[in-house]
Automatic annotation (TrEMBL):
Residues 172-347 form the D-isomer specific 2-hydroxyacid dehydrogenase NAD-binding domain. InterPro entries: D-isomer_2_OHA_DH_cat_dom, D-isomer_DH_CS, D-isomer_DH_NAD-bd, NAD(P)-bd_dom_sf. CDD domains: 2-Hacid_dh_11. This is Uncharacterized protein. Belongs to the D-isomer specific 2-hydroxyacid dehydrogenase family. Residues 92-374 form the D-isomer specific 2-hydroxyacid dehydrogenase catalytic domain. One of its GO terms (molecular function) is NAD binding. PROSITE patterns: D_2_HYDROXYACID_DH_3. Gene3D superfamilies: NAD(P)-binding Rossmann-like Domain (3.40.50.720). Keywords: Oxidoreductase.
């Protein structure tokens, strides 16, 4: 029987049995040969490595994975499922206020919405990697992490399903605004039929602000609706998907493009340059009755400016999946406007994206457990 198959079939049998097997004559040599032929299987390789450690009387130390905060529970739950058969990997979700006193025990940190400054990073004595369950890493002091010898990584949205999930949600918000979803609910309550009258996405001009992975996925899904697509990006490469976009622009063309748009969708990262990019000037340039949809970061929109535009009935509708502070106050005055639709930061929260990203986190944890090279994992992007 092929020793590699035998090892994989051991399942959860005792390590003592495995240790005895490894001491049989010729087994270690066969195991080495089997391991070299199993490079296509990360699981097989890991079992082989564990075998060598056990043969020498050693066991793996506990590898600890920290999920920061208790929000976005499926990210934690799916990752825990992926690692359920690995007792030497512990996965915890801890409330934000407890993290400063517990971070020192962890090897891998999934930051979610936690902010990590230099002081908090300094407490993470064992940590190998800060990682986002997604792409947003603006809450991490990357310079401080680099100085402390820690890596920072994200999971690119184009391979995980996160970008296409966000793009679909942006279209959902656009359609909900155009068809007046909140008023439809009111009409149902009042037993009215045939109202309200809605608008079509067909024929509209949509400005995509930020043409990264999400922007590209959005353009691809908008095109069949028969819309005119404008897109703004800091700079355009020769391989950008120009066939999906009717007109491409850069940041200093924002006002010009806004004047021609019926709908603005923000898909860009939150940086010092983009904070409040949807301000009073931009909203004033938007056609009366135009719409704004934000699926990226709450700080991209100037709160006071958008509230003023809603009050003046210049803005036709506002669709938000993200807010200025989260969780967002359900009594906030901005939610009183009937043409505001808000969802609880779920644009990227789909079975597809979360299962894929959980598997990636599990792969990283296994690599740390094995003492391997984190940078060799293809589904993460290390930024430092």
């Amino acid at each position: 029987m092929d020793v590699s198959i035998f090892i994989m079939n051991l399942g959860k049998r005792s390590s003592a049995l495995v240790r005895r097997i490894f001491h049989l004559p010729g087994v270690v040599g066969s195991l080495s040969s089997a391991a070299s032929s199993c490079n296509r299987s990360r699981f097989c390789n890991r079992i082989s490595m564990e075998g060598f450690h056990l043969a020498n009387g050693a066991t793996h130390p506990l590898t600890k994975v920290l999920f920061c905060g208790l929000q976005f529970p499926s990210s934690f739950g799916y990752t825990k499922e992926c690692l359920a058969n690995y007792p030497n990997i512990q996965v915890d979700a801890i409330a934000h206020e407890e993290i400063p006193n517990k971070i020192q025990d962890y090897d891998l940190c999934i930051v979610r919405m936690m902010r990590f400054d230099a002081d908090l990073i300094a407490r993470a004595k064992k940590l190998k990697l800060f990682m986002q369950f997604g792409v947003g890493i603006e809450g991490i002091d990357i310079a401080a992490a680099t100085k402390a010898g820690m890596k920072v990584a994200k999971i690119p949205g184009d391979t995980s399903g996160n970008a296409l999930s966000c793009a679909e949600h942006a279209i959902y918000l656009m359609l909900a605004l155009l068809r007046d979803q909140r008023e439809m609910y009111n009409c149902l309550q009042q037993e009215q039929i045939g109202v309200p009258i809605g608008q079509t996405l067909y024929g509209k001009t949509v400005l995509i602000l930020g043409y990264g992975n999400i922007g590209k996925e959005l353009a691809a899904r908008l095109k069949p609706f028969g819309v005119n697509i404008l897109a703004i990006k800091r700079s355009w490469g020769s391989h950008d998907a120009s066939d999906l976009v009717h007109e491409k622009g850069v940041n200093d063309q924002l006002l010009d493009f806004t004047r021609r748009a019926d709908i603005i969708v923000t898909c860009c990262s939150l940086t010092p340059e983009t904070v409040g990019i949807i301000n009073a000037e931009v909203l004033g340039a938007l056609k009366k009755g135009g719409y704004v949809v934000n699926i990226a970061r709450g700080g991209l929109i100037d709160y006071k400016a958008v509230k003023t535009a809603l009050e003046a009935k210049h803005l036709g509708g506002l669709g938000l999946d993200v807010a200025w502070f989260e969780p967002f106050d359900p009594t906030d005055p901005i939610l009183k406007y009937p043409n505001v639709i808000m969802t609880p930061h779920v644009a990227g929260v789909t079975e597809l994206s979360y299962r894929n990203m959980a598997k990636t986190v599990a792969d990283v944890a296994l690599q740390i457990q094995a003492g391997g090279d984190i940078a060799s994992i293809k589904d993460i992007e290390i930024v430092n």
